[in-house]
User: What shape does this take?
Amino acid sequence: MSELAQSNIQNTRLYIVQKNKGLILTLLCLVFILLAWLFGTVQLVFLEILFYSLAYLSGGFQQAYDGLKTLIFEKDLDVDLLMVVAAIGAACIGYWMDGAILIFIFSLSNTLEGFTMEKTNKDITSIMNLRPEKATLIVENKEQTVSVSQLHKGDLILVRPGERIPADGVIVEGASAIDQSSITGESIPVDKTINDDVFAGTMNRQGALKISVSKLANDTILSKIIHLVQEAESELPPSQIFVEKFERIYARIVVCGALLLMALPPFLLGWSWDNTIYRAMIFLVVASPCALVASIMPAFLSAISNAARQGLLFKGGIHLENLSRVTTIAFDKTGTLTEGKPKVTDVIPLDRHSNEELISLAGSLEKLSEHPISKAIVQFAEQKKCPLSPAADFQSTMGMGVSGKVNGIACVIGKMDFIHSNLNASQQTAVDQLENQGKTVIFVEADQQLIGIFAIQDTLRGNAKETVAQLKKAGIKTVMLTGDNHSSASAIARQAGVDHVYDQLLPEDKVTIIKKLTEQYGHVAMIGDGVNDAPALATATVGIAMGGAGSDVALETANVVLMGDDLSKIPKAVQLGKRTSRVIKQNVTFAIAVILVLITINFIGDINLPSGVISHESSTILVILSGLRLLR
Assistant: This one.
């Protein structure tokens, strides 16, 4: 066998041992206890104590080391040191077996906690595994396999069917159905073709694609998702911070209580010194806050992991905790409750002009504008297959409209104040009806004669009405905030079914409304697109950004990012927050109840050290497993 192969085998063995060190030491502890017990049955006292000592060493060394390190460097007591002291105390009064069983069960408990925490992080790891390591780079029509980290902006890569896309980019050749569930949580693959954006970590299901790389490996949406989830994993919610501070104080109280229990009962209750010290050791074990400390963080991590799998990114447990308390949710209108893409709903030709003539003239001039309303008119013209002509002398007036020449005809398109014509009574009635429906009315003029009217309206998201209904059913008030005029805002509000609407707002006005709602109703969540809504998102108790498959601004702005822009996930997020809060309360109540019951039984004298250890450590494992329910 070659030296390289031997080295690989040795490294593999070291990795396995390192990864399973806790389990190996726990098993050794059990073996030493069994050997000590066997030697004890044949009265070989020296070997019995030797193997009990080895059991203490193998099962308790790491806990003793961690506990002493905390005591010396942080000047704090922790649960690990309490357990070891209790075991050594039991050995000092002759209860070697009881102390050894305490060490074994405590070691086993820590090992199981490690496995359960590893299970909690399983989804985080699975997200990281979505990141491909290699890419097929095309250079001078030749393919070469390179590391993803070597890709640069503008590189051309090939992605075959069944492969994961290695980098964010734009399709330049080919079409396919892309499974984006890893990024947006969408269960149905999305059809993509030339000029469409694609994201690293998503799966190419059908055709071969050539993609121009748009972001470096560390800047991809997937990398940012991984960073956010890891950041959320490390950020402690207030309840966990409180429990950890309480643990330090409580550990001192337990030590003082144990010392008093060692000193007073022989004088006050007539207990023997051996029985007194033994009961004090049991008290050290059963009063330790292991289960209480483990009641919170596994639950939060499980819930955050669950949410990430569904395309909901929480930037920390505190936001999940806050979401469970929300009583009011404020929605931005454009791009949140609505698609954010205006569409032509009505076309009214005037002065004997045909529909096609009106649409062609407007589409030809608007093609030179980047305004969303202009794009809506051009898209409408293309859908109707109306011919478009080149425009000349194009000018755009901010907030009013556009002007120019099409086939030599001087055209003006925009608001009523921008054109030269006046409306007659029937035309004014038609305009009033359209505006009362919440539509934006655009006028088209040719050679200073009004030739037609377009009505434009943003459309409600398909699941917006159902989402609002579910929130209201859960007892949450719904509010819409928008800069649009009253008619347009009221129309969308009626369609969505929100409770209240505030219109004609500037970004700073939205902040004022959020503050007002917070004073009136308590905890308020704000949902917006993460750009012009940023001040309001920051002011709300919980800011939720529409991620649009992970736009950079959305990822940086809010406390929660909705990756797939699927509003139906909002009620699920609120429900998950409330469920998490409920599970934590159950865990904390159970942990405290077990401690109180065991302390009471210990004073009565109907519990031994092994029974106390088993009951105490079982409660710790049970609250961790309870928290893991939130992975589902």
In short: The radius of gyration is 34 Å.
